[in-house]
Amino acid sequence: MDLSYSPEEQEFQDEVRAFLSEKLPGELSNKVRRGQELTKADYERWHAILNARGWLGGAWPKAYGGQGWSAIFQHIFEEECALAHAPRIVPFGLKMLGPVLMKFGTEAQRAEYLPRILDGTDWWCQGYSEPGAGSDLASLRTRAVRDGDHYIVNGQKTWTTLAQHANRIFCLVRTSTEGKPQEGISFLLMDLDSPGIEVRPIRLIEGGYEVNEVFLTDVRVPVGNLVGEENTGWTIAKYLLGHERSNIAMTGFSVAALDGLKKLARAVRRGGKPLIENPLFAARIAEVEMDLEAVRITNLRMLARAEKTGAPGPEASMLKIKGTVVRQALNDLARQALGPAAAPFPSEALEGNLALAPDGHAQAAASYFNNRKISIYGGSNEIQRNILAKGMLG
Amino acid sequence: MNFEMSDDRRMLADSLGRLLDDACGFEHRTKVAYEAPWHDPAMWSGLAELGLFHAFLSEDQGGFGGAGFDITCVFEPLGRALCPEPVLAQMMGLTLLATAGAETGPALDGTERLALAVDEPDAPWEPEAGSTEFRGGKVTGRKSVVYGGHVADRFLVAALADGKTALVSVAAGDASVTPYGMIDGGGASEVVFEEAPGEVLIADAGAAIADALDRGRLALAAEAVGAMDAALALFTDYLKTRKQFGRPIGTFQALQHRAVDLAIETEQARSIVIRAAAAMGTEAQGKAVAQAKALTGKIARLVAEETIQMQGGVAMTWEYPSSHYAKRLTMIDHQLGDAMFHTERLAKMV
Ligand SMILES: Cc1cc2nc3c(=O)[nH]c(=O)nc-3n(C[C@H](O)[C@H](O)[C@H](O)COP(=O)(O)OP(=O)(O)OC[C@H]3O[C@@H](n4cnc5c(N)ncnc54)[C@H](O)[C@@H]3O)c2cc1C
């Protein structure tokens, strides 16, 4: 047993750290640290900085403009980025569509779309979920009917993250109603500015706008935008789920959040003393910290195994559950640490002398509420448990 | 033994419920709760006309209630409707005015709005630990997150005077008030006093303030129970009707046991609130109120988190009332001492 990174991995870690301290703009990391909403331009700026270094698609093969990083290299990169409060990489093009096109796309599709993902020309969003198809994704009903060289698409997608910034969407659509529901699904690419597509914002619990409804009415999509064969969309979607194994546990974010929480608990006072000296509160930090430490190691165990066998195994579901629970517990403690000061809507009125929360924590309650999403999306924690139970008990 | 509400209280609670159905429907409530001035004068006068504020004082104090159950029978419906009006501040203010033997008429009929200015940025929930001072007839200091302060006509301020915590009355116009909205709706303010002229209502006010805070904690615990009831009703309906995998999600046992746990815990919350209401004015008040506030705080968060999780994405949206219940249920714990604060107090009584 040796828990340390190999010399090459350590060297890479140093390289990432040096890069981040030199190139990550303070305006961006401050926003991320404070939990403030990033604008489209913020994301694009960070993507461009990474792309200039060749690291935006670091995990992509060299042939497609990547570095061919191993799972561990990618993990190191993402953890260091999170610790430095870098904006997260918008995953829809880079971590979802990119790998799908490499595996299932035509040469023409790869040549057209992959470079545009890296250089920021295209912003993709993910059109899987529908009002009636959440956990039971295979029941999706958005129809695509063949009409000569086109599909005519009708239906509705929902929860589409950051569609307001996107110019393209990849969708799962129904192309057949015969046989099992999984067997009649296809993977289709669309331009969001096609006639018949309307994007409407959904406001979330804490007041922000990051998800949307996408209405599709008689949208004409060229047949060339089909990825893979017709009716094989489910296989593609499943491939993607199995492929996405780095960063499921978001441990980098959690380590950064734990650090922030300790600083916060030192800065706020309760009963005439810093909150961190309150044994009840300190014990709760200690409990999350041990859980986080264990998740970090589980994560590394999974990466090591994936590197050997190419398959992530059931730890992926375990990591999703534990990683989200730990992160939510950290959000919960940060909100609690603020006491009464957590309750005001962060506003301009509360800047300067009247600031209620120590720097970087005004959004604690908003982040707590917003992050309830992480145990719901990407396969809810209940669905992850169903997967694990099936493997364990049959 | 009798756990029935008296007829008078039931009538008040019923008419309050009807008024709130009309005046505090979801859309109107959302608008009032999240937009300046975070207050609806019509809703407020409706509450006053109902005689709501009289329910907080005893007959010899000029009201018609004043007992623990008078508080809970009002705050449960307020919680069920997520009413954003600063009734809590009015209730605690009235209690203190009555204790001081001061004029209560205008506050009883709602024309004068009160706010209790106790918490300070570095000393939340500790009225005697603040650094606001009263000297030579003037108050100087800062009070933080003053609920109801966004619309108050008068502040009742905890301030140090001659080595004791005094209760001082300051007209809102003599303070510098920065109003803001809250993440769970409604308003509060930062209040800065710079040599603001004040009138001492109670010179040694530690016990009186502690009693008013206890009544406020009882009110918040009851409000939480009302909000839990409403949140669970929405949740139950949704689990029965939302279908995935060809069946209502409420038929999945993975959700059923957790749903039942929420029902069990909500009954625990209801019981501890009844216990605390019955203990008001007795020796058991302090402990019973701390138990009620700590336990409802814990349960309220569980109900908030679990109703979001088990309803899925829809419960993350602003448009669906469930999310607003979840916010209120979570943030109630941040008022007048959270579960940890009261558990710590209780630990010292073990
Ligand atoms: C903020 C946010 C962003 C999102 N972004 C995207 C996006 O960009 N693109 C996209 O396509 N989708 C996105 N989603 C959708 C997300 O994937 C779905 O919300 C998720 O799949 C759950 O579906 P649902 O919300 O319809 O809940 P439902 O499927 O209705 O589930 C409700 C509850 O029932 C439980 N449940 C369901 N089935 C079972 C079962 N068999 N056993 C036990 N429990 C069960 C669930 O776990 C949940 O607790 C996003 C969601 C959110 C909240």
Q: How would you describe this protein?
A:
The complex is a heterodimer of chains A (394) and B (350). With 394 residues, chain A is α+β, with helices and mostly antiparallel strands. Chain A has three domains: 7-89, Butyryl-Coa Dehydrogenase, subunit A, domain 1, CATH 1.10.540; 124-231, Beta Barrel (Butyryl-CoA Dehydrogenase, subunit A, domain 2), CATH 2.40.110; 250-392, Butyryl-CoA Dehydrogenase, subunit A, domain 3 (Up-down Bundle). Chain A has helices at 7-23, 26-34, 40-53, 71-83, 91-104, 107-118, 233-243, 251-267, 279-309, 315-337, 364-370, 381-393, and strands spanning 124-127, 143-147, 150-157, 168-174, 185-191, 197-203, 209-222, 226-227, 269-270, 273-274. In chain A, strands 1-4-5-8 form a four-stranded mixed beta sheet. Chain A has a four-stranded antiparallel beta sheet with strand order 2-3-7-6, with no helix packed on it. A two-stranded antiparallel sheet of chain A has the order 9-10. Chain B is α+β, with helices and mostly antiparallel strands and 350 residues long. Chain B folds into three domains: 7-108, Acyl-CoA dehydrogenase/oxidase, N-terminal domain (Butyryl-Coa Dehydrogenase, subunit A, domain 1); 114-204, Butyryl-CoA Dehydrogenase, subunit A, domain 2 (Beta Barrel), CATH 2.40.110.10; 207-349, Butyryl-CoA Dehydrogenase, subunit A, domain 3 (Up-down Bundle), CATH 1.20.140. Helix content of chain B is 50%, strand content 17%. Chain B has eleven helices and ten strands. In chain B, the strands form three sheets. Chain B has a four-stranded mixed beta sheet with strand order 1-4-5-8, with helices on one face. In chain B, a hairpin with a 2-residue loop joins strand 2 and strand 3. In chain B, helix 4 runs parallel beside helix 7 and helix 7 (206-241) packs antiparallel against helix 10. Chain B is globular. The two termini of chain B are 28 Å apart. The relative contact order of chain B is 0.11. The model of chain B has no long low-confidence stretch (mean pLDDT 97). Classes of the chains: A alpha+beta (394), B alpha+beta (350). At the A-B interface, strand 9, helix 10, helix 11 and helix 12 of A face strand 6, strand 9, helix 9, helix 10 and helix 11 of B. Bound molecules: flavin-adenine dinucleotide. Flavin-adenine dinucleotide sits between chains A (126-129, 134-135, 159-161, 211, 373, 376-378, 380, 382-383, 386) and B (242, 244-245, 249, 252, 254-255, 309-313, 316).
